[in-house]
Amino acid sequence: MYRRFAIITLALLAFLTAGAQNGVNAPYSQYGFSQTSLPNTTPFAASMGGIVTTRSGYNYVNPFNPASYASIQGESFVFDISMSLVSSRLSDASQSMRDFDGGLTSIAIAFPIFDWWKTSLGLLPYSSTLYESVLIGDVGIGTQQVKTIYDGKGGISQFYWGNGFNIIGSGETAGEQSLQLGFNINYLRGTIAEGITYDFIASDTTFFVDTRRQSETDLSNVTFDLGALYRQPLNENYTLSAGLSCKLPRTIDRKSVV
Q1: 62-74 pLDDT, tens per residue?
Q2: How far apart are CA 154 and CA 198, in angstroms?
Q3: Could you tell me the CA-to-CA distances from 4 to 81, 118, 219, 249 in Å, in that order?
Q4: Which residues of 93-128 are buried (b: 16+ CB within 10 A; e: fewer)?
Q5: Which helix (H) or strand (E) holds 195?
Q6: Residue 225: pLDDT above 70?
Q7: Which helix (H) or strand (E) holds 256?
Q8: Whole-angstrom Cα distance, residue 40 to residue 54?
């Protein structure tokens, strides 16, 4: 059974990698490694504003604290898919525009290896790049003007393999004291294409030629996350939960092609 689910999951992961692309013009995505998508890639993370360190359950996957996988029930196979719909409004002093976009944002599975060991595989968007901005200025010769267009697209995806372990308790029973530990091994991979176009818009362009410069940057690396989750029952109705998620220092290998 697990083999069949694994084949289906890998096919969906390939589809998500090939087809997922943010369609909203995001000017801030031109800086650094683009506009980060984490942790608002799952519904429960977005609804909590990204505060999900202590969240776990038997029927959903929380990749932002790998210790949470240990709460998956011993006879369960969890298949988790997330979708999003984004509406953005961009404006300046003279005009405004509205963009809409939607589609798959993440996919993950989780299942038990043993009662004390649960594992998870998934694909998340790490960051996205999509922007286009225009600047019109004088060339300095007569009334000649040039329109400079800055554009970019691409992004980084995160494929992870995570494991969660029950150290104290089973992690599946409400009102039970429990301690869970876990880790993620992440593979980051993506390409960002950026360009600058100079478009001369004067009536006489005899001495000017429209030009364009473009570069592509491939990014990849392996990173690690650590997590811990502790629960202490206070009474029949309340439980105190404390979570810790640690992302080890990340470096991303860059290879630029002009």
Answers
A1: 898 999 999 998 7
A2: 22
A3: 17, 18, 31, 36
A4: eeeeeeeebeebbbbbbbbbeeeeebbbbbbbbbbb
A5: strand 178-200
A6: yes
A7: strand 253-257
A8: 16
